[in-house]
Amino acid sequence: MALLFVGIDPNTDLEHCPTVWADEEAGELVLQGWKASPALRATCEASSPAKSSIPDSEEVIRIPARMVPMIREACDAVERSTVQ
C-alpha cells in the first residue's frame, strides 16, 4: 500500500501529530488524530441515526479545524484516483 502524505498539524509538538494521508489505490483517506474521550464517543453513539455502539474495529478521532485544507487536498487526491 502506497500512501500519499498530505500534511501534519502545523502546530504539532512532534509527539501528538494529527496527520492526513490519501490512499489513492484504495480510494480512502487515512487520518491520525487524537482519540476521543469516552464522553465524546458516547455523544457520537447517541447522535448516530443507528443509535448503535462504535465497533471495536473503528475509532472516533479529533482533527483540528486548521487541518481542513489538508483534508480537502486528500479528498481531491482520492477523488482523482477513483475517477475513471
Question: Concise description?
Answer:
Helix content is 30%, strand content 23%.
Describe the overall structure:
The protein has helices at residues 38-47, 68-82; strands spanning 4-8, 19-23, 28-32, 34-35, 61-62. With 84 residues, it is an alpha+beta fold. 30% of the residues lie in helices and 23% in strands. The protein has a 3-stranded antiparallel sheet, covered by helices on one side. The chain has one domain (4-11, 19-53, 62-78). The mean pLDDT is 90.
Q: How are the SSEs placed, and which strands pair?
A:
Blueprint: E1 4-8, E2 19-23, E3 28-32, E4 34-35, H1 38-47, E5 61-62, H2 68-82
Antiparallel strand pairs: 1-2, 2-3, 4-5
Q: What is the terminal-to-terminal distance?
A: 20 Å
What order do the SSEs take from the amino end to the carboxyl end, as H and E?
EEEEHEH
Backbone structural class: alpha+beta
Strand content: 15-25%
Total beta strand runs: 5
Oligomeric state of shown chains:
single chain
Major sheet summary line: 3 strands, antiparallel
Helix segment tally: 2
The strands making up the biggest β-sheet line up spatially as 1-2-3
Q: C-alpha Rg, in Å?
A: 14 Å
**Helical coverage, percent range:** 25-40%
**Please, how many domains?**
1
The residue ranges in which pLDDT falls below 50 over 5 or more consecutive positions are: none
Query: What would the average pLDDT be, to the nearest integer?
Result: 90
Instruction: Specify the overall morphology.
Output: globular
